Amino acid sequence: MRLDPRVWVLLALSVLAAAGLLAPGLAGRAGLYVWLGVFPGMAVGRLLLPRAAGITRWTLGLALSPIVSAVAGWALLRAGFDLATGAKLVGVAGWLLFAGGEARSIGAGTDDPHAAPVTRFAWAWSLGAAAFVAVLMGLNPWSLVRSDAWTHAAIIGEIRLHGVPPTDPRFLGLHLNYVWIFQLFIAQLTAIRGQDPFVFMALLNVVTAGVMFWLVWQLAWDVWGGERAARGTLALFTFGLNAGAWLLLPLQFVYAFTGEVTGMAEVRRQLALMHPGSWDVIYLLAAPFAWMVQFWDKITLGNPLGYAFLFLLLHFVALGRLLRGGGGRWLAVAFAAGLGSVLPHSVLGIGMIPVTTGAVALGLLLRRRHPWLPRPGAVLPFWAATTAGFAAGLPYLVSIASGWREQSTGVVHHWIQPGWRMPWTLATACGVTMLFAWPGIRTAWRERRPLPAWLSIWALGVVLMQCIVHLPEGNEHKYVWVAFAVLAILGGASFLPTLERWRVRWGRVRVSLAFALVFLVPPVALLQGALRDPMRTQAPALAPRPGETRMLEWVRDSTSADDVFLEADGRDLLTVQGPRRMLVATRAGAEKAAFPESGLERRRAVSADLFGPVAHFGADADTLAGIVARVRRTTPVGTVYLLYRESDETPGDEPWRRLEAAAGGRAVKRYDADGFRVYALVLPESP
After folding, report:
1. Model confidence over 531-542: pLDDT tens digits?
2. pTM for this model (two decimals)
3. Hey, which residues does 581 pair with through a beta bridge?
């Protein structure tokens, strides 16, 4: 008797999931990922689309699973379960529902006639993209912890210790003014067996890459309806962002002719700032004077934005299926896409919903002259479902945005602020892709194709929004990827035919060389930079000083999760390696995470004195006592510790000696070994 393929898949996943509870290393973590990153989403996906084709079910299920697990875990936390128990319940419930659904569907057909075919080419391309992400993140340990990943790991540790909604571990007592659903999902995975979060963030990125290309494959079929166009779309989507922009690098040396320092001295200075043999090569692959945007950046970083991009693609897939008569169940998918645009990284929804609203309105107005454009009976319910999903996540969005008030942060922001940098970034990052998208746009309107024509309206809207709207810290540049993705879909049909015409006209060798320079140099340069990055041996997170590991073990074993630490110079290592909350652990200003401006100044002044002259210990202690008293009104706070590192000081300068002299019995030494000293402060009672 031959078993249905679904049975084999279920058995294989169940074995892998069981191994996740026992096996060490990467195999164990991959198995754990299945419990929360596969089963819950597949169960919900079947509820939304019970008779969908396999490609549709799997892309929907894998995209939804992290937020399904996180939202379910959040509900269980509120019901009184601890994080680990809640995560296990979510995983087991997901497995039971998934297994039951697979068992009921054995032998059943599908009602998904418009699903894209599953070809060897699509398998090879999506697996290749996932493997590329795995190589970038797996072969250099610095890739796992670099940049935003460290901050997110700190938030994950905060959630593990204190639940949700989290406070900011970098600033004692501050409500986290940032998204945290992504971090809750990773915290659930780490809670089951106590593993570190970085590998789980990398696993999510690998899955995200594979799902992303499968969604693009399906969307290309919905838009163009042919395999060659779908193949061209995958290729342009992979290589098109910033294609050829690195060839503009000589413009960087314009300062050699216009600045205060000119000539070869300025050229040498500019060259010294370039680091092609590191992750910083991504800045060389973007055009000079443009925002750094890179296709692989957000899916090779411990960051929720790459995952959030899946919901933009799912948003368009839902519309495509509705326009092709896919049925009202796709409105539920549109709702999920709207909710997903908020929960992992809200900046996506903040842009997606207004642009979709404008595209729907303009598309309906244009129907007076072009009646073949998407009909109101499809786009209005689609818009309503998407907006309803966004609205469902709005309380969460409001809660994390509540701290961004000018009176507390001191940050004055102008939302409407046109400038030259964003148009330049769009032109250089998407210019080559636009060369292929323009014929596709013309074809869509000439041949009266509703979906690609509507997508061209949407692309116009997102470009205009980027050129006008200014987000804090220039975050509007995140929408460059969004604009590029739509243009790549529109240009996919013309990509391969255009290359073939060029090959006939100019010859295979010339076109191959030009293709390599424009499209292949960036990913190759990124690969070598990621693998060679010297931070693998230089980063403090990866190269602890002698005795530091033992000191960190003492922190974890001998201090309470409610205790607070203060280190010199805003160091944030303990937020992850402790993990412990810090009085202040950032070198950034208020604009970075809505840190209260006056609070930053007070805490930095205390830190500068306690790790410097210790000239005002009494005032420092009073300030700390006041801070702790205010925070204790809402959050438990234990002992305040000072961590001194001998390596921070010049020989002979010992601020801990000055602390002991100034504080007397109010600074109790708790740890002293290998150049590390930890003091517990006895603070005065605050009125």
Report:
1. 999 998 888 888
2. 0.93
3. 564
